[in-house]
Structure formats: C-alpha cells, structure tokens
C-alpha cells in the first residue's frame, strides 16, 4: 500500500495548520451548548468537541485534543465542514463521512458533500486507523445530542 | 575499535556464551516474508515473539498424532496427551528452577495468572478459616509500582475495591527506574502482597529486586514478580530470586498464544482457595459441596490448553538449546547498539534508562512532536514493525507526560541490520512530517 494514499497532502495540511482548534465559549449566551470527550483506548488519543447551536444551526464547533495526524486533521476537517450548517445538513455530511470510513476503501466519496473529507478515503483502507479518523466525529455526535440536536443514527462498531 | 584489557581473574569478554544468529533466524519461517514490499523487520517481540519451526512442528504433531483430553482417559491417546502435557510442566519447572513440578500452574496468560492470585486473596478474605496470609480487609495494603502493565494494576485495584484494602505503589524516577527511596514507608507490617514487574514492558528497566525482597520478608508480606518480559530474555531461578509467585506467558517466549504460567511456592499454592470451579480441579463432588484437588490441578479447571502447553515445552527446549545466558548477552549487545544508533536521530527522546545497564532490549521513544501512530505507520510502509500507543502501561505515559510512545523491542533473532533499518525509517518519518 502506498503511504501517500494515507497521508494525503490535504491531511498533512490540516494536521500542521488545524482550523478552529481550541475550545470556545458560545458567542450567544442563549445558545445551547453540548460537549463530549472521547478517547481511543488503544492509543490513548483524546478529543473534546463542543458544539453551540440555536436549535437549528451549529453556530460553532470547537475542539481540543491530542492525537495522531489523522485524528487531529479529521477534527479540523469536521470543524470546516459542519460549522454553520443546519442540523439536517450536518447529518447528511456526518453519515457520508462515517460511511466512507466504514467502507474499507470501497466507497467513492462525493466531494460535493464531503469537501476535504474526501482525503480520508485512503484511511479507510487501514483498519487500524479508521478509529483515529472517526474519533472527533463520534465525539461531535455525542456533543450535538447533548445540545439537543440529533445528528446521525449511525452506530459505528469499533 | 579500542580494546580494553579486562584484568585477569575477572570474567573475560570471550567467556560470554554466543550463538549463530543467522542459524537461529533460519528456524523462524516468518522472518523470510515481506511486508509492504520490504523485507520484514520485526521489532515487536515484547508484544509477541515469533515461533521457530521446532515449536510449530510440535504443535501440529500434537494435534495430528496425539490429540486427546488429559488426566481423564485410560486409552492410549489420552495417556500420550497427558504425558506430553505433564512433560511440558516438568520442562517449564526446570527452566525456572522450580523446586517442584507441582508448583507450575498452566494458565491462559500472565493476566490470568495474576488474577488467580488476586481472586485467591479475594476468596480467602470471605472465609474466616482461610490462611491469614491471604485474608485482606480495611487497613491491609497491596503494593505495586507505577511501572506496571495494566494486568498488574487492574486486578489489584479490583481486589482492593472488593476487600477494602488499600492500593499503594512505588513511583518512578526521571530515568525510568523504580524509586525505592520510600521503601520502608511503603512496604510495612500492613502490606500483604507486593506485586512488581521484573522487567518493564515499556521502559525496558530491569528491576533489582533484592532490597525489596528483603523488606517483604521483614514485614511478612508475599512477593509476586511479573516476569512476562524477563523469563523469555534471561535465565530465571525462582529460588535465587526468593519470590513467592512469578507469572509469565508462552507467546512472548517462542511459544504459542493461549498458555501462560503461574509459579507459586508449593506451600502457598496449597494454602490458596480455588478460583475457577469445574472439572479436573476437584477431589470429590456431591450435590451440596465439593473438596478440591491439590495444586496445580486445583487451579486448572476445565480442559487446559493442552497443545499449547506441549508447544510451550518445545519452546523451552528451543531456548535452552540456544542458551538463555547467550540470548541475554545478544540482547545486551543489541541494546547498546540501538541506544547509540537512536541517539543519532535528531529530536529523538528515549524514555527509560539510556544506558544498556539494568535494562533489557525494549526501547520506547518519542520522535519530536510526531505522534507514535504516525511514526509506526510510516515505519510499517518500510516493513518495520514497531508498537505504538500506551503499551498497556498508561500510568508510565502519564508519568512522562505523553499520550503514547513508539517502542522497538528485540529478541534472539534480532540483528543490528534491523536496528539500522529502524534508524533509516525514522529519517523517512521526519521527512513526511517535518
């Protein structure tokens, strides 16, 4: 397997220059806020994702954590893709990303839906790294639920 | 190379036993394979070792020709299987210089072996007539260290919860050694058991146990040594170490998975209540109650890992044939070579002792800020297999302020060329992430 399938330039770029990193308070004090902390018990990676929503739109998605390039880049892409989106819309993207990562490299991603997320197509070929890519996405799902906004019914079996 | 003359009367360099590494490698079929288009460089033997043909053959031969259940059949196959199984027990006993064959209990692995001891304490604590050495309650203490594998932490945490006893531990020094400065306050008359790793699976540290053993004897506690990372790599003599229990696992010493060993002093095993109930561990059973077999059978309920134990016996033969002293020396040379070679990699930080003294051939490190998962992934693309993560020793990672480490570990078949491949691979890692 070619290493550059895994470490696409886009992933390395998000890793070295993460977007929206750092936990933030909601700008609007009326916003509903939800937060979730997830760990990957096999490697000790951790991430905290916080969402702020007015009940319809994710007005902010902030995060902090430590982990490998894949997990950190994935959080950065999550922030880029879902911040400012309506819940329904976010659910579609979330579902597409989870489907891509669960596809063992057999799923062709739609760039219209996933944007920079398509760079993770190669990661799906490395079963040991799928969890890394999904860490922030699963934390986001829990955080959104805690803020009272369901995102995706998809359960990922580790 | 400079030559230093060793004074007469001292052990001379040439006295060290050696073996032919190339010949040993030829015994391990897997070492011939390729990974991702590169020759396999396996630096993960602390995780699990490879198996020589001699062990694989015995495993296959047992199932092909001698398969039957043990300790219960009068037929020929049953007798052959029983003899092979008990023969393996005798080989293991001799390998660790156990005073009696009956002191060797076959388990699933080290984890199960430690849990058997922990649950024997637990069960004894519920019975007023049990041996007081195994009875625990509030005010009693269990001592471990910050260097333990999770398998030597969690069973004791659970035991402390069940009994109300207190769990305490030795801290680590910055160099990754056991901090024994508080020994007298840590191991006291309140201590019932000290359970300590002999060789750290993450730092490579070899713990000098004699001071601790002396203190354990002074206060009348028991001593368990987790020898998962020592028995495969150096000669072990349970009498010399003066331990009460040792545990180790077959798959890290050229044997198969699924079989491990609990060794305990005969009189202690005899005083321990059973843990798992079932077939083979009984003396007699009525509907109301049962009485139990003597050790080791008391602790081997159900059909044991027969073929695995027999193959472990073959692994013991194999290692003995090469020579444990020679294996220990080979790994010492590799470790010295690797510590020097890794020191040339910019930004590399070694966790644990950085001299090849009082440490084994397991070296964990950080490469700048690059996450170990990424280090391991790039190395894998070059055929170099290392372990990344917290190595089931999360408190050690916490102690050194990192979420994970990259670990290279050596064994009798490891070569300096493989260490060179690691160092070259690390250069590649830096190119991808810098």
Q: Can you give the mean pLDDT of chain B? A: 96
Number of helices of chain B: 14
Number of domains of chain A: 1
Radius of gyration of chain A: 14 Å
- Tell me, what's the shape of chain A? globular
Radius of gyration computed on alpha carbons of chain B: 22 Å
SSE string of chain A, helices as H and strands as E: HHEEEHHHH
- Indicate the CATH class of the largest domain in chain B: Alpha Beta
Number-wise, the strands of chain B total 17
CATH class of chain A: Alpha Beta
- Helix residue percentage of chain A: 40-55%
Strand count, sense and barrel status of the largest sheet of chain A are: 3 strands, antiparallel
- What share of the residues of chain A does DSSP label as strand, in percent? 15-25%
Runs of chain B with pLDDT <50, length 5+? none
Structure keywords:
heterodimer, A: 158 residues, alpha+beta, Sufe protein. Chain: A, 3-stranded antiparallel sheet, 6 helices, 3 strands, 41% helix, globular, B: 434 residues, alpha/beta, Aspartate Aminotransferase, domain 1, Aspartate Aminotransferase, domain 2, 7-stranded mixed sheet, 4-stranded antiparallel sheet, 17 strands
What does this structure look like?
The complex is a heterodimer of chains A (158) and B (434). Chain A is built from 6 helices and 3 strands, in the order H-H-E-E-E-H-H-H-H. Chain A has 158 residues and is an alpha+beta fold. Chain A has one domain (3-144): Sufe protein. Chain: A. A 3-stranded antiparallel β-sheet of chain A has the order 1-2-3, with helices on one face. Chain B has 434 residues and is of the alpha/beta class. Chain B folds into 2 domains: 13-51 and 323-433, Alpha-Beta Complex (Aspartate Aminotransferase, domain 1), CATH 3.90.1150.10; 56-321, Type I PLP-dependent aspartate aminotransferase-like (Major domain) (Aspartate Aminotransferase, domain 2). Chain B contains 14 helices and 17 strands. In chain B, the strands form 5 sheets. Chain B has a 7-stranded mixed β-sheet with strand order 4-10-9-8-7-5-6, with helices on both faces. Chain B has a 4-stranded antiparallel β-sheet with strand order 13-14-17-16, with helices on one face. In chain B, strands 1-2 form a two-stranded antiparallel ribbon. In chain B, helix 11 runs parallel beside helix 14 (416-433) and helix 12 (372-381) crosses helix 14 (416-433). The two termini of chain B are 35 Å apart. The model of chain B has no long low-confidence stretch (mean pLDDT 96). Chains A and B meet through loops of A and helix 12 of B.
